[in-house]
Amino acid sequence: MIFITRQESFICDHCGTSVGVLTNGSYRNQCPACLYSKHVDEEGPGDRKSLCLGLMKPIRIDQHAKKGWMIVHQCMKCLKEMRNRSAPDDDIVGFMQRESEKFARENRKD
Ligand SMILES: [Zn+2]
Ligand SMILES: [Zn+2]
Question: Residue 6: what pLDDT?
């Protein structure tokens, strides 16, 4: 088993976007386009201790006073929830739009 501890680019398992590394040195697992992530960390961002490797779905966005936007992911395989700091190029607005459209569709009274 090889544990990868460095940054590398990847192809998003959910939408197929090719995700490049961040140049500001911060870490990311999630795709900036759909915000899906992969269950590779167990205790915290970047530890790469998880053997699950399930797809992690963004379930909500929290705003943290100091850290800014936090994306809350839930693993679709083991249901673990993790909070991740968002990257500057993450499409938070797009995610919120999709969520509110979904909410409107689900709550339509017709
Ligand atoms: Zn994606
Ligand atoms: Zn998992």
Answer: 56
